[in-house]
Amino acid sequence: MMSITRNRASVFCAALALLYLTAAPLLAEALALPSNARLTREVVKSAASYSAPVAPYSAGLLPVFDVQGRITKQAYRIPQQGITPQQILTPIEESLEAAGFEPLFKCQDRFCGGFDFRFSTDVLPAPDMFVDLFDYIFLTTRRLPDGGTASEYITLLVSRDSTAGYVQIIQITPTGASPLPTERGEALVVDAVTSLRPPESPIGTQLETQGHAILSDLAFETGSADLGQGAFASLEALATYLRANPSRKVALVGHTDTVGALSGNIALSKRRATSVMQRLATAHGIPSAQMEAEGMGYLAPVLSNLTPEGREANRRVEVVLLSTE
Hints:
alpha+beta, 325 residues, 29% strand, disordered N terminus, six-stranded antiparallel beta sheet, CATH 3.30.1330.60, 9 helices, four-stranded mixed beta sheet, 2 domains, Protein Transport Mog1p, Chain A
């Protein structure tokens, strides 16, 4: 009787060990997200097609690879100031590699094609997903079939605004297969002392570290492109930086709120950026070869346009560092 009990115990332990060994790889196959990531939107189609970008936007075209299967789209918001897209992306990339996915294409903001890339690929709508056109990373990955009939694809789009980080995950799995689950790790928190730049941080420092900065003290008349006659400390600081770095080239980029048509807002925002460029040239002696002017209209808000405060914040001119040569 005793030997039968021992045999049953041995069989039970062996079964548990086998269960553990077979379950461990499955638990490892998960997308690593921080515990403070909140799902804001999910769209699932059991049978559909998706165009996965495989190269930057160029010459009016976005090279894509069309794949079919179950499409799962998710957007997450990570409420943390100062977090960078690469900080968000790194643990996800590592979990994809552990699950057997290989990178096919990775790009960053203007090297993807900037505005054209962003609006040529599939992005879940705001406010669930936010994309800063000057600060995003895109990644396409693939896992080859292991005894199956079709590959799996996952694309990631990561960006941020002034208060949070955003992640879009699109998974394409063969019909009947399940997408990778998400696995929550530690909350992604950035040390405010070392990672957040205070508002008074010099514009030159912001350009060198962030790639762009808002000229927050500029004043325009409502609906007008005429820049006020104030001294504007931000322009003086930018002029000082450009004089000290004659090899640097920047773009002045105008932005508006959502009042009015897009075409009119793009034209107005570019005229405002041009006014700033002209002021830098005439009042501060900055060579025109160091500058260019563009307008984005209302396509890159920093806050919601549903409030007066948000609309005011969105009416702005930013400076973007283009080159260091």
